[in-house]
Specification:
By secondary structure, the protein is of the alpha+beta class. The protein has 28 helices and 27 strands. Among the domains are: about 110 residues, no CATH class; about 110 residues, Beta Barrel (OB fold (Dihydrolipoamide Acetyltransferase, E2P)); about 260 residues, Ribonuclease Z/Hydroxyacylglutathione hydrolase-like (Metallo-beta-lactamase, Chain A, 4-Layer Sandwich). The strands form 5 sheets. The chain has a 9-stranded mixed sheet, with no helix packed on it. Helix 10 runs antiparallel to helix 11 and helix 14 packs antiparallel against helix 15. The termini are far apart. About 40% of the residues are buried.
Length: about 800
Amino acid sequence: MTAWLVPVLASAFWVGIVAWPVARSLGPPWPLLAAGLLALGWAAQAAPGRVEESALIRAGAVPQGVPAPVGALGESRPGVARAPPGAIAFAAAIAFVLLGAGWAGLHELRVHGAALAAVTPREVTVWGSLDTDPGRSGRGWTAVLGVGRVRVVLQPERVEDLSTSETVWLEGYGPPPGARRGDRVEVSGPAEPPEDGPFAGYLERRGIAVVLRSRELVRLGPSANPLVRAAQGVRAALLGRMETMFPARQAGLLMGLALGDTSRLDPGDEEHFRATGLGHLLAVSGENVAMVLAPVLGLALLLRLSARGRFVLGLATVAFFVVLTGAEPSVLRAGVMAAFALAGMVLGRPRTTATLLGAAVLALLVANPTLVWSVGFQLSVAATVGMVALAAPIAARLGWLPKPVALAAATTMSAQLGVSPLLLAYFHQVPAVTIVANLLAFPAVSPALLLGLAASAMVGPAEPLARPVARLAGVFVSYLQALADRLAVAPLPSITSPGGVVPVVAGFALFAALTWWMRRGSRLPRPAVMALAALLPLFVWSSAIRAGPPAGLQVRFLDVGQGDAALVTTPEGGTVLVDGGPDPEQVATDLAALGVRRLDVVVATHPHLDHFTGLPAVLARFPTSLVLDSGCRPPEGRSLPYRAFLTSVRSEGVPERRPVRGDRFFVGRLRIDVLSPDRCWEGTNSDANNDSLVLLLCYGEDRVLFANEPEASAQQVLLDDHQPIMAEVLNVPHHGAGTSIAPFLDAVQETVAVVSVGPNDYGHPVPWVLDELRRTGARVFRTDRSGDVTVTFADPGLVVRTAHGRTFEFR
């Protein structure tokens, strides 16, 4: 078997699984499986076999070409293929594409035909074990539950117990239950199929067909599996010891480095690591597996264990570590690769890294086809492919550096090249600081992790020695934290994209071309070097133009779905961000794509998730001079996430003000007048909405009113107190909800009204509000239909551009 065959077949199987949603409309998966097996059989039959050469032939006693007796056969040599090698390879690849599609179809049938999925919607009681730790989500919590037994009420007088093996999505209200991954639980509540929409597609890709809404969850005890139970004990003991030996923030980071457990990671550290491209350090990967496996195999050699004994001990170590870290996709990939490598060594037939990777991917996809949709799995495989393909050629070209530095740099650069197309597709951004951050972090990661684990292990039997070891580990941990903190706000550009399939196809095509070129050992011809030197200033110039200030006051209403976020930019380069939308990352990514380097003012208008959720990432990535927030108490049940946001403000060291009506702020020539609230409201339909900051932004004669979300009572106060709400541009209150009053909308006298809105169940925007706005003569734009809406004040009127390329002028 050649080195390239297994990776190619694994890739073909992957493609088949991805193609199944399209092939589903053609019929059941059985014909695909049958066709795949037939194509594979033909390829195997047509491939060259191994012709045995007899000792008589080798001795020259029998002329060449004369068949030898079977009994005299000796060593083998390649036979003759019955078809061209290209045709055989193509047939084998097509066979695995068909097999992948058919296998994905069979898995889908099994998921939707399982016992619990077949009886929904019903009131049920289930028994199973948690596959994930319960985590907070909105007003409640979520988890993934592996179900083994179901009790379903089929009729009022008929209850039936069913055995099953399926995975369900578990939801509950209130704080998360006191159970953790691996625990056995009993859960009662309604089981339903997921509602149509993006979330249903997400669950489909995870192989989940049922949503169970928990009314009651009872923890029955730890896992029944002794390996899982032992891993639970080690995890709990390690966490307890780390919290004993280290400050909470350092302990949280060490748990992430060691086990990929980010449950106690400081939110600021999480944002900084993500912003600098160091987030992969918090996801357990092959490096962690190697650090655990190497000392175990070293001990086995000292004990003079046989090859088989080393294999068993290594395999047990890898299996335990995979369970300990929660069998995340990245560690599954690394663990299976390590297992295959150990098997190759014990059999005396070591394989190339590419073959090991292909075999591991193929085995995991056979076990669980839904892994192809896991972003973590995709990134893990892509990073490994990058290192296999490009680490050696890049290191060879960095020969002028010391060998360890060259190897570290090549590994970092090749892994980054491998994952960049996926990062652009999913997260729309690759920070330019990533490679620098990884190179600077590389020397500190292993000492921080190993010394941290050593200090934790010494707690109890050697505690006096543990303290200095912990202090030394703390130096490296603090270095990583400070590095991520400083580089997260480095004034370096980012590579951005709108996402989708284009960056994946184009990115991997470029990666393949780069790999081919570098592995050939070629150098760029002189004309190509000169062309690149000529083109580079054009890219720099175009980026500078894009990032430069506008000719007049400009307001860009960002399309963030059902939420609010707007960027205000002045001709002098002043920047004001009003709200951060409902997504944790989108606004920060949008700002990077727009060339923003810093923010003068960030406004959190009020404590609703659709307005401030994206602000912690913004503060972590962009130097900010001032944060404004209403300072009023968040509504019940939402205080925890808002307190986390305020904590992020303080941890970033950003000055904070809580303005009241009459306060005024300046960003160069831009004046920000605070018109509301005049107090923190109590006893209204929505105190938080009425507490919303209402801002009038004035730049010379140009005026923009950010009405945000005051409801009828607060709007009436603005009218009664004769606040200056007239403006050419209006941010329509509350996503166009019916909580406004017509006199308020009439009094603004705006030319352009922008409704920031997305898919919702509230009916926003309501028809009468849109009719009222149009009756006043305003042109209404909706972000759910126009995408980003950019309004620029130009002499003598307004210019509006939508994300769809349409331009409107108002004079």
